[in-house]
Amino acid sequence: MIDVKNLTKIYKISKNKNVIAVDGVDLTIEKGETVGLVGESGSGKSTLGRMILGLIPPTSGEIWFEGEKKTMLLPRRMQMIFQDPYSSLNPRMSVGSIIAEPTKIHGLENRVDELLDLVGLPQSAKTRYPHEFSGGQRQRIGIARALALNPDFLICDEPISALDVSIQAQIVNLLQRLQKELGLTILFIAHDLAMVRYLSTRVAVMHQGKIVELAETDELFSRARHPYTQTLLSSVTTV
Q1: Cβ distance 95 to 126 under 8 Å?
Q2: For the chain, how are helix, strand and coil distributed in percent, rounded to 5?
Q3: Of 59, 121, 164, 192, which cross-links 10 as Cys (Cβ 3.0–4.6 Å)?
Q4: Beta partners for 187?
């Protein structure tokens, strides 16, 4: 479904200084699978995700979607679930309006009731506002909004890192259920290796802007080959 070829992003910091955020990345994501993308802060994970979606223009390289070169945003096919479920929601809009906004923009049928049921929120949530909900509930609102246009591909950019540990597993279980029920393809960007292992079909490891290892989940966690991946896995007590 997604084929990234030699994707690069260079930021010009000053006249004589550039920073390479993403450095010649190749990545293929097959339809229906969940690829986990891990690496330390500043490794380029979020920049890569935003370039695939079209929120950030690449310096060079190509992104192909279902066999066609992607040159623009595809909001009806690709959506993102953001890290902070509060700052990504308009505090002045009711939950019903937030979820309905994408369908309204594209002239599609209002699916608010269906989407609230899908993510496990009550119908009474429609008339309430984001500040009235917990972090986990706000992330469910964000997921419902992301699903409003029936996308095929979701990029989840650290979707659980801002949540309490007790809530993280609930959101991951929800994403896993939705992936199976809706046939979604997911790029799951995260620091939490245990959650990545639980959710992902394959795992890509980023370090200094490059993907240094990509393997089936069980293989990577049991027989990591790259020294950076080995260090990353050894830094956590339970994966």
Answers
A1: yes
A2: 35, 30, 35
A3: 59
A4: 35, 155
Q: How many CB atoms lie within 10 A of CB 173?
A: 12
Q: What is the pLDDT of residues 217-226, one digit of tens each?
A: 999 999 999 9
| Residue that is written with structure tokens 């200094």 in the block | 208
Q: Which residue stretches of 120-185 are H helix? A: 135-147, 165-182
Q: Are 127 and 160 in contact (CB under 8 A)?
A: no
User: What are the residues facing 205 on neighbouring strands?
Assistant: 38, 213
Tens digits of per-residue pLDDT, 97-149? 999 999 999 999 899 999 999 999 999 999 999 999 999 999 999 999 999 99
- Structure-block tokens of residue 202: 């394959």
Q: Are residues 148 and 98 in contact, defined by beta-carbon separation less than 8 angstroms? A: no
Element (H, E) at 222: helix 217-222
CA–CA separation, 239 vs 235, rounded Å?
Answer: 10
User: Does residue 96 contact residue 104 with C-beta atoms inside 8 Å?
Assistant: no
